[in-house]
Amino acid sequence: MNDSKTIEALCLATPYIHKVLKGEAIVAVADKQKDTVECYLAGRKVDSGYRNGQKVNPGDNNVYTAFRGKNADVYIDKSVYGVPIKAFAFPVYENSKVVGALAIGLPVENEEKMKGYMETMHSIIESLQDRVHIIASHSEELSATSEEIKAQSEHALADSERTNGITVLIKNISQQTNLLGLNASIEAARAGQHGAGFNIVAQEVRKLSSQTASATDQIDDSLVSIKRNIESLKTSMGQISEASSEQAHLVQDFSDIIDELNNLSTEMSAFLKDAL
């Protein structure tokens, strides 16, 4: 029979406390005067090794803290009992004096697993955030490059228009030169033998005029092709720019969602930390 009626009453209540905790937790009642564990029930998955009437382990700071009149709340790594537990101990008073301690050890294995899952999820979210930021940066660079190429295409179109005007001018000069050469040939024929030399020059002028006209036609064809390609490039750059802008908006939306998920993960981690 225990000398302390409070300790005795707690020992009688120990099985019921154990049932309330669904048999998962360690429940022990220690007597300070005797320095013994008077009542002990192991948890379903955890057992500290105590037996009824056994001396308190000298290294059991949890119980000795309660003996000193203070509440104890410590985390014990799974390397000690095979599963991680939260150990609590409360001083038991009788006539305003500490006569013993009520100690409880709650397994937190599932909570530890959940904590690990949360840490993994947080790591994945951070990795996603990094990649989204890289994609967003590339989208902005692509959009800026597309705009620059589009602007350069517009300048090239303007230059091709000016070049086209020059070729038209060359054609007109060529036609006038050809006409002058023809007139010179006619006049040389009228002059007879005296105009033979001048006729040769006139023919060469007409020949040069014909070659110039042919060359300007080729330039025109090239300019038309260049213009067509630049127009196509301009259209493509416009489409790329629009797609890049849309992609940037989508990336931003995705980034916002990841930020919300990250906030939720942080809140859940804080909740689990408090719960543990």
Provide a descriptive summary of the structure in words.
This protein is an alpha+beta fold and 276 residues long. It folds into 2 domains: 5-107, Beta-Lactamase (2-Layer Sandwich); 113-275, Orthogonal Bundle (Helix Hairpins). The protein is built from 5 helices and 6 strands; from the N terminus they run H-E-E-E-H-E-H-E-E-H-H. A hairpin with a 2-residue loop joins strand 5 and strand 6 (97-107). The two termini are 37 Å apart. The model has no long low-confidence stretch (mean pLDDT 78).
The CATH homologous superfamily of the largest domain is named Methyl-accepting chemotaxis protein
Detail the poorly predicted runs: none
Q: Main sheet? A: 6 strands, antiparallel
Secondary-structure class: alpha+beta
Order of helices and strands: HEEEHEHEEHH
